[in-house]
Structure formats: C-alpha cells, structure tokens
C-alpha cells in the first residue's frame, strides 16, 4: 500500500511522420492519467548554472503500486495540492516485490 503524497503522469508521444500525400504531420503529445504515488527527494535542490542560465537540480525516488510501467520515458510529478514539481526523465523502473511497489528514480 502506497501512502499518497503526490501523483505522476507519463508523457505520451505520437510521432508526427508523414500523411498519405507525403506532407509532414504535426507532432502530438500529452500526459496520461495521473497515477497516485509517494515521492521523496534524494538530493537537496542544488543550484547550478549552464551557459549563464541558473537552474535547480534535484532527484527523487517515486513509489507507485506495483504495475507494468514503460522502461524509459518522461514523467510529470505533482504534489498532493497539484503543484507542479517538474518533468523528469526515468530509465528502468524497478519492481519491489517485497512491498508490492514499483520504484522509479528520477
């Protein structure tokens, strides 16, 4: 059982490609349905700069009820009050059978 303190949504992408006449088709994308989650910050927010721009770097551990999950992609993380925390890339979520959860590190 997950103690919910937020939610994630997986980014869905559909390639644009070409239509039957060979014209480019506009890229379409969005996010899937929200999935309840429990998240915690692994590293403190660290202020960094790149090419003169300052940004905050953070990493999180996200737990969701055990389910099949894509091997890689992008998730949008929201807190309980629906405040946007960020979009994060994830790779290889891990099933934690002992606690019936799926762990996603971002």
Secondary structure layout plus pairing:
Layout: E1 6-14, E2 28-31, E3 35-50, E4 53-65, E5 72-79, E6 84-91, E7 94-96, E8 101-105
Antiparallel strand pairs: 1-2, 1-3, 1-5, 3-4, 4-8, 5-6, 7-8
* DSSP summary: helix tally: 0
Indicate the multimeric state: single chain
The main β sheet shows up as: 8 strands, antiparallel
Radius of gyration: 17 Å
Which features does this protein show?
8 strands; 106 residues; 8-stranded antiparallel β-sheet; globular; mainly beta; single chain
What's the short story on this structure?
By secondary structure, this protein is mainly β. It has no helices and eight strands. The chain is globular, with a radius of gyration of 17 Å.
Describe the structure.
By secondary structure, this protein is mainly beta. It has one domain (6-14, 27-105). 0% of the residues lie in helices and 62% in strands. The protein has no helices and eight strands. Strands 1, 2, 3, 4, 5, 6, 7 and 8 form an eight-stranded antiparallel β-sheet that branches. The protein is globular.
């Amino acid at each position: 059982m997950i103690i919910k303190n937020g939610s994630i949504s997986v980014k869905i992408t559909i390639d644009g490609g070409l239509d039957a006449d060979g014209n480019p088709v506009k890229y379409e994308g969005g996010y899937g349905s929200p999935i309840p989650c429990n998240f915690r910050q692994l590293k403190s927010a660290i202020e960094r700069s790149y090419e003169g721009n300052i940004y905050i770097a953070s990493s999180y551990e996200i737990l969701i009820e055990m389910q099949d999950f894509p091997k890689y992609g992008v998730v949008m993380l929201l807190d309980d009050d629906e405040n946007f925390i960020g979009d994060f890339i994830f790779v290889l979520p891990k099933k934690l059978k002992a606690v019936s959860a799926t762990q996603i590190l971002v």
